[in-house]
Amino acid sequence: MPLTGIEIFKLLPKTNCGKCGVPTCLAFAMQLAAGKADLNACPTVSEETKAKLSEASAPPIRPLTIGTGNRAIKVGGETVLFRHEKRFENPTGLAILITDTMAESDVEARINRLNNLIYDRVGLTLRPEMAALRADSGKVESFVALINKVKTQSDCSLILISQDADILTAGVKACAERKPLIYAATAANAATIGALAREAGCPVAVKGANLDEIAGLTDQLTKIGIKDIVIDSGARSVKQVFEDQIFIRKAALAKTRSLGFPTIVFACDMTQDPMKEALIASLAIAKYAAIVVLSDFQGHALFPLLVERLNLYTDPQKPLATKEGIYEIGGPNENSPVLLTSNFSLTYFIVSGEIENSKVPAYLLVKDTEGLSVMTAWAAGKFVADVIAPFVKKCGITDKIKHRKLIIPGYAASESGGLEEELPDWKIEVGPREAAHIPAYLKTWKAQ
After folding, report:
1. Three-class DSSP labels, 16-77
2. Predicted structure pTM score
3. Which pLDDT tens digit goes with each residue over 3-12?
4. Exposure string for 254-286, b = 16+ CB within 10 A, e = fewer
5. Which of 110, 208, 369, 410 could make an S-S bridge to 433, C-beta 3.0–4.6 Å?
6. DSSP β-bridge partners for residue 293
7. Cβ–Cβ < 8 Å for 62, 260
């Protein structure tokens, strides 16, 4: 397990110089233990101590990056078995399978879905990240052509799949600058594929008949200097995948270094039923796949998987928050109503959704309350008149409207008097307590 703050403190210089931005070395150690500080912030720590802390505090599941640029995906780095213990670190990557024997139109359609199935939710952009390219033809030229096509039309991260070392070598050469995941090193070809991964500087997946064989393969690769490894347990049944994923996570947390790597699950190989495949992918995201490969992306199945991933990989100790600012809903104009709410994402989406349902174009002012709901923020002094008023003055809403009417949530009705004092040019109107009543309220609202 990672070092505690006290264990880290014992290795620090104990000068309490404050140059790290924290008053004492003990406080700095506590932040290091919580993952909220970088050891490099300490100017006096020795290289020997850096090496010790780096090794001792390394997560039990090695983090690694696949791809480059904005669509690079980081996997691994996990430190707990259950999300409530701390948090899950790096969200599961979702990959679409494309083979070099597919029709040109099918390849184009899959690339299009990979690029364009993008969703906005709770202020975040949700989308899949990866393409798994498989050499079913057994021909180097066909595989390289597929890679070039995908590489040209998408900036996604890539997984290159083949049982033929020569085909993989040609494939890696075609896109080495994209740092693809090479799949896979097996007992039969580990030396060759390992040398390819080391030369190209790419991560590599290992696949074995069982976990003992996999442990042997990872040991073999690490001995030749390859550290960025992804594990495929080889299981292709739901029961075995479930058991393997849990066993690998537990073993890694128990410091079994040979299994301390992120995992990949091929849901596409486990069923021909698209809905069952989505269910298998859902299971794999929850238990504890770093990458899940799907046979295709369809919005009705992909979106729930992205939402599940979002829910699992958000910090349970940190509320989801929407960016502070002015949100235009339905194409408002200078006579449209102006409503106010907090930036707790669930609150924002409920309120904005009800405004949309009303069919009345409106401006929604979202005040930063550190992700707290209206009632909680009000109780904490973060949604009160002397905090709201400066926001209203500075946000720019006065440049967009002629009237000076502000609708505040019913739960913050007690702040109406204070807001009228702070905003003397404004009329403060108390809106509904429940978001469900917003449509009826807005339909009777008038600017004058």
Report:
1. CCCCCCCCCHHHHHHHHHCCCCCHHHCCCCCHHHHHHHHHHCCCCCCCEEECCHHHCEEECC
2. 0.79
3. 788 888 888 9
4. eeeebbbbbbbbbbbebbeeeeebbbbbbbbbb
5. 410
6. 95, 266
7. yes
